[in-house]
Amino acid sequence: MGYLGKTAVIASILLWTCSTVVAVDWPQFRGPTRDGHSPETGLMKKWPEGGPKELWSFEGLGKGYASVAVADGIVYTTGVVGSDGILFAFDLDGDLKWKVKYGPGWKGSSPGTRTTPTIDGDRLYLMSGMGRIACHNAKTGEHIWHRDTLEQFNGKNISFGIAESVLIDGEKVICTPGGKDATIVALDKMTGKTIWTTKGLSEPPAYCSPVVIDRGPNRIILTMVQQSIVGIGMKTGEIFWRHPNKVSYDISAVTPAYENGMMYVTNGYRQGGHMFELSADGTSSTKKWSEKSLDVHHGGVVLVDGHIHGAGTRGNWTCIELATGKVKFTGKLVGKGSGIYVDGMLYCYGERGGDVGLVKIKPTGYEMVSSFKITKGTKEHWGHPAISDGRLYIRHGNALMCYDIKAK
User: Fold this and answer.
1) Model-level pTM?
2) How, if at all, do strands 272-278 and 262-267 pair?
3) Spatial distance between the Cα atoms of 108 and 110, rounded to a whole number of angstroms
4) Right CATH number for 66-113+115-206 from 2.60.40.730, 2.40.128.630, 3.30.360.10, 1.20.120.50?
5) pLDDT tens across 262-295, in order?
6) Cα–Cα nearest to 44, from 408, 299, 382
7) Rounded CA gap, 66 and 275, in Å?
8) Which burial class, exposed, middle or buried, applies to 179 when counting CB atoms under 10 A from its CB (0-12, 13-18, 19+)?
9) Where are the domains of the chain?
């Protein structure tokens, strides 16, 4: 084989290696695109007996259910210690880099933090259970600006405290204070100044974190507020469409899932889910089907190959065809909980027993390949899993655990 032939083979090997081992940051709630997915690869397809190796843990986060964000070699999360909301930053070895106060912590029903920090370059943004949005230096924790959104937009807090993880898009920070003509607002991410508010929409917030999608020429915010499902134009805050969504307890905590013009929303307490088809430009939408069995409380859903996967309030994981609403199969797995999908596998975290499952999705059903139990931490298992650079992060109350899931 000549020099050029050997060079081509080496280049092919390097390309194959790079294409099969990809480390990706997890810079916000539910991953890089807020949908429970990550393009990360090179992860184990089966865990050792007893689960993957624990690389480190930290027990001292205080009260909370926030997940983690990972960006530029730093791991972030939040907790309530005493009466203060605390922002924590760790290096990848689990050593505490710094912690800072970001405002009063939520002390009402189920006290503790809800918000997962959102990292955008050298800045970090978070929303407290009391409705205070704050911007900090992501490297040092230094406070840059904050706004008490409930006070400034005449909003009113909800039963379990504001639970939104804020959305960053371009120069805007999107949050949901639920004020008069200001259910949703856009702030300048550098200064906190108001860019627009949703004129004509004055509904209180739910517990939903918004997502942004592109449809035709429009960039559209999809979210649920207390009694509606809404599509909002990112440019000006125009209300493109609104569907009534009166449900038990007004929880509405699951970020809408979107693919190819189809949006899926779901609510717990046997309310089920609905699929809406957006017009070519996204300025209108039509309900196509409803289905009762998949009633996700707050564990999120993932879309994989045109199918929705999530856990209902009665503990069954369910696969539904997005286009038709047809239930394809169900499985108990880890019971009611949260899930994400990375490198061809479903990662499930059961909220009632703390079981973590590695699940393969087959055409005819779920296969639980491996599982282990979370034994550290306090209270409910409500934090969503996160994955970055071959590491699985699980938050359980006052504890954060990091596990090695990189393929050897």
Assistant:
1) 0.94
2) antiparallel
3) 6
4) 2.40.128.630
5) 999 999 998 999 999 999 999 999 999 999 999 9
6) 408
7) 28
8) buried
9) 1-61+306-408, 66-113+115-206
